[in-house]
Design a protein that fits this description.
With 108 residues, the chain is an alpha+beta fold. It has a domain of 58 residues. 30% of the residues lie in helices and 19% in strands. It contains three helices and three strands. The chain has a three-stranded mixed sheet with strand order 1-2-3. The longest helix has 15 residues. The radius of gyration is 13 Å and the shape is globular. The termini are far apart. This is NifU family protein.
């Protein structure tokens, strides 16, 4: 078992496995990673908002996180349909104070 938290490991995984998000102007942030329940919440922003294939990206993230992390049992990926996204990013498109709507963006 790693000394890093589940959230840190998922963030690191996102940097390595999902560089396409940043390459296309998108951002992502891990909002929750509960080691006890196995639930992970990832939020996509930037150009992911309104992107026609963000549902495919979200499904790939869901599937791959569950496959790559034994302790992850449920993954929720939130994609804003409109609104402001955080401007600050760090490596791999991480960061920002992304804001998602409470209503589904129609993808999930």
């Amino acid at each position: 078992m790693s000394d890093k938290s589940l959230a840190e490991r998922v963030e690191q995984w996102m940097v390595g496995q999902m560089p396409i998000i940043q390459m296309h102007g998108g951002t992502s942030v891990v909002r929750e990673a509960d080691e006890e329940t196995g639930e992970v919440v990832v939020e996509l922003g930037g150009t992911c908002s309104g992107c026609g294939i963000s549902n495919v990206t979200a499904e790939n993230i869901r599937r791959d996180l569950i496959m790559d992390f034994d302790e992850v049992s449920e993954v929720h990926v939130k994609v804003p349909s409109t609104g402001d996204q955080g401007a600050s990013t760090v490596e791999g498109g991480r960061g920002g104070d992304l804001q998602y709507e409470t209503e589904s963006a129609g993808h999930f």
